[in-house]
Amino acid sequence: MMNRTELTDNQNNTHGATIVLDNRQGGAKTVYSDMSLAEARDAAFGKDVPEKIRQMLRLYEYGDGSFKKKCWNFYKQGKFMEDYEDDEPWDGQFERYFPTYHDLTVPKLRGYFMWRTNVRKGIYRPIATSLAYIYIYELLNGIGTTSPEETLWKMQEFETEFLDTEIGDWMMKYNLHRWMLEFAVIHQLPKKLVLTFTSPNQLERDRKIAILRNPENHSDEEVFNTLCHFTTGKLETSSVLTKEPNEGRHLFAEVWRYTVTNYNDNGKDFIDACFGPWKAFPWYPLANSVYFETRNLSDFDYELNECRIYQYREGRWFVQTYEELLYNKKKISGLLHETDRLLRIYLKTGHPLRPKADDAWAIPYVEAVIEADRQAKIEAAKPKININLESLSQIRQDAVVTRESLLTDEDKAESIIEPAPVEVIVAEPIAKNNNNHNVSIDAEVEVDANAGVDAGVDTVNLDPIHRQILLTLLHGDSADELIRTHRLISSVVTDALNEAFYDEIGDSILDCDGNQITLVEDYVEDVMKIVGAASPCHSPHSLKP
């Protein structure tokens, strides 16, 4: 209580006043209610507040006022109001960061719940953006959904029916996409599903780094196109590419492969030098949303691709990746500039480039690739002889069939009744003298099909007939008569003898033009040593069939 006393002079003019506070012990007492703030707010709206909303407001706990406590209150109140419906509209303006039920007046609450009721029926109407965020927060917390998959489905529906109809704003769409990815990862949903929510730009960056990390697993075209993406210049316009496009792409890719394999700068590999370390960075999923984690999570890894792995460790989230802010495109451009410069000289494409002192480190890597390519071209220019040994067996079988088809019934009968004697020319032992070595072939011996000639002398397994043909050729005579006598085919005999000597010689020792067989002069001496025959009286160069 307060008393006011005015001061006046003799003319009754007021000059001031004295105010005295009443501090009497027996004064009237003020009675304070123990009603909560939520109840006090309810009382202000009278009896029109639905009982469900009254109960929800009483659930709020102030606690320490932290953001985590705010998220907990939202989750608890949201679960309580999960199935609530209302029919009281409200269409005013409302703006607030991280809005929750506690930030709304009762009319706003009823207006929001009426809007949500319609949304769940597929009816999307305009509403203040901050209130629409509350709906997304509900989905993230599993309020109104039965599974993480259903949460994502409803968020996609919200994007299509609300945001894509220009009711919401672009920032909400950006947040929605990011939250869908983060929500899918922390709930370890299938990778195929998670990829649909991942930023295309992010996926493309990861894909390109993956190509450059393991260039040996990718084509020249893939490696070259990826390098063009990370360089600061226009590599495609180089004279190397305009004049030698295929070879140019190949050599650029080979330089990158060689450098990735051999580069070492005090323990740092080339990929780290270009893109920074591949390591775990702190990750904060759903950090700018109202979300409360209710699960007891164990440590786990979620590999989205070979350049991006999400990790949960003792209550903290990480993402192992290459941080874009650490990319060193200057390193990549330096290697490509020196590659372009030296390849123009090597391929003689003209228009030379000036060397840069800062890029000199790349020269040894480029020169190594150029030298390897030069040697490969020299090797490729050498003539190659390819022998398909697998086809010889089939050729022999086909020859037998052909020979049998040419025999008359009389020939077949004679061959069964009495095999014709085989005239074999046997090489005499080598006669040594001071001048030369002569082969004397003057003995004629009749042998049967199982007889051997000079058995054990050579290291090549030959049957008597083929051995006799070979000795005849080594002596410089024609083997045509022997081949006709035993009803053989020249090409098949040639293939059989070439196959028999391939392990020893490593090449064909005979040539056949279809009818006549000739010795390959380069291998005559080697064949003589193997079969134990002496050098012919005349030079191998004069041998004729």
SSE inventory with pairings:
Blueprint: E1 2-8, E2 14-21, H1 37-44, H2 51-58, H3 67-80, H4 106-119, H5 129-140, H6 148-163, H7 170-186, H8 191-197, H9 200-213, H10 220-230, H11 239-243, H12 245-262, H13 270-275, E3 279-282, E4 300-305, E5 308-313, E6 316-321, H14 329-346, H15 363-381, H16 390-406, H17 409-417, E7 422-426, E8 443-447, H18 464-474, H19 480-485, H20 490-505, E9 510-512, E10 517-519, H21 524-531
Antiparallel strand pairs: 1-2, 3-6, 4-5, 5-6, 7-8, 9-10
Main attributes of the structure:
545 residues; alpha+beta; four-stranded antiparallel sheet; 21 helices; 47% helix; 10% strand; disordered C terminus
3D structure, described in words:
The structure is a single chain. With 545 residues, the protein is α+β, with helices and mostly antiparallel strands. It has helices at residues 37-44, 51-58, 67-80, 106-119, 129-140, 148-163, 170-186, 191-197, 200-213, 220-230, 239-243, 245-262, 270-275, 329-346, 363-381, 390-406, 409-417, 464-474, 480-485, 490-505, 524-531, and strands at residues 2-8, 14-21, 279-282, 300-305, 308-313, 316-321, 422-426, 443-447, 510-512, 517-519. The longest helix is centred in the C-terminal third of the chain and has 19 residues, at 363-381. The termini are far apart. Residues 1-37, 422-457 and 537-545 have low confidence and may be disordered.
Low-confidence stretches: 1-37, 422-457, 537-545
H/I helix tally: 21
- Specify the structural class: alpha+beta
- Proportion in β-strands: 5-15%
Helix content: 40-55%
Number of strands: 10
Spatial arrangement of strands, main beta sheet: 3-6-5-4
Q: State mean pLDDT (0 to 100 scale).
A: 82
Shape: elongated
Largest sheet: 4 strands, antiparallel
- Rg value: 48 Å
Q: What is the rounded distance between the termini?
A: 145 Å
